[in-house]
Amino acid sequence: MSQFEITDRNTIRLSRDGRESPDSPEWTRNIDNPYLHGVYAPTTIETDTDELEIVSGSIPEDLYGAYLRNGPNPVHEPRFNYHPFDGDGMLYAIYFKQGRARFCNRWIKTEAYLKEQEANEAIWPGVMGPFDFSLPGFPIKDTSNTDVMYFNGHIMSLWYNAGTPYKLDTKTLETVGREDLNGQLKRALSAHSKVDWEKEELIFFDYFDEFPYMSYGIADKKGNVIHQQDIELPGPRLPHDIGVTQNYVILHDCPFYHDVELLKKTKKRVMTFHTDVPTRFGVQPRYGAGSEVKWFECEPCYILHTVNCWEEGDWVIQVGCRSTNPMPKADPSEGKLSHMLAYMRLEANMYVWKFNLKTGEVIEGDLDTLNTEFCCSNPLYLGYKSKYSYNQYIMQRDKDNVGTLAFGALLKYDIETGQYDRYDYGPGVFGSETPFCPRRSATRADPEDDGYLVNFVTDTNDWTSYCLIFDAKDITKGPVCKIKLPHRLPYGFHANWARGEDLSL
User: Fold this and answer.
1) Which end of the chain is more exposed for a tag (fewer CB within 10 A), N or C?
2) Where is this region: Disordered (predicted)?
């Protein structure tokens, strides 16, 4: 039996017989941190192959493009307490064309990755600190391990904290270098920038610890910044997403933030949820001046991810996953990792906000109360009224998971009714964020759910990983195709779909 027993609340179950994943680095064996073991254990393998085993079904002929997933995969033993946001970024892709598939995964070679490879050891601390302001770039490691999307001829990877975006080759996943928007990027990009397929624009935002604390901008399809505005906030914030309609952007000012003076004093960023401070959403004309933003006060909450936003007359609608407890109470029995483990448990549910631009009225409320997040919608509907959201069910503490972030089921929500269909991955099987993949040459004139859902799952019973393809019209029937991947995939963060037409596959 492994030294990490299921009775140890600091760790997840490794497998039914307690074995550690065989391809994880040796240095992980002596670190008692659940995000370095089991399904989260880093891999040492990079692969590029089209020799993939189809376990069941067949690959649809009109599935044309690439499923991209980003995630943490630390190379070196961390200097300080490890947080999953600290792991070196690794990008995974499975390409589909004419009923065939090819799989590839590569480390994202950030500047920090290259410097640590040269030193053969970790240099940067992570988000749990201590922040080291003497280091080049960021005082903690910018890993580019969080989100991924196609933009301006490259795949672009982004980081949880607003960080440096990186360009990767669309076919090999090799790192090309920084994405600086033709030298016009002032500082950094948030993790959740948006690519508008219709307008061929990148809508991005940045946040920082100095006045005015936020900015947002728009770049055209060639990467030229065509609009950028500063947004004044009451103080430093850590917004995670942005809403986009045809004529507006929705900016987030949530009462979950840190004290800069305390950060300077302790070298640690201590997040506090201020329950007496309203959450504010700023509806800003898409190409307007920053001074035109109209703020709406709502119930205190934190929001990680939006589903979609759109306009209905004088109303702007935002649908997303809302958390009223972004910093769950830490369990003292979990020791020095207790606050990190509490934060990563993620309590959220589907929610809708409505803002009346004429009267200032706000209507808000639950769509459903199930613990669910990592929500995706049809990208052709960005900024237009949509009906469906594809979410991950966040597992609770049970025999398979004792409190780490884990996805146990795929959900298809009807936003109009709050009802959902559900597909459970199975005991010991954990999924990934699941974007909607339109059929080849699809347009918004086609039915909204006429396409596919693609994701990766890992089975901790035997350490195999698979790609699952679903018909988005009915996920309850299970995958229409199951493809065995060449090796175990560590747990990841965000995923996206890139059209084959854009990638020139």
Assistant:
1) N
2) 1-28
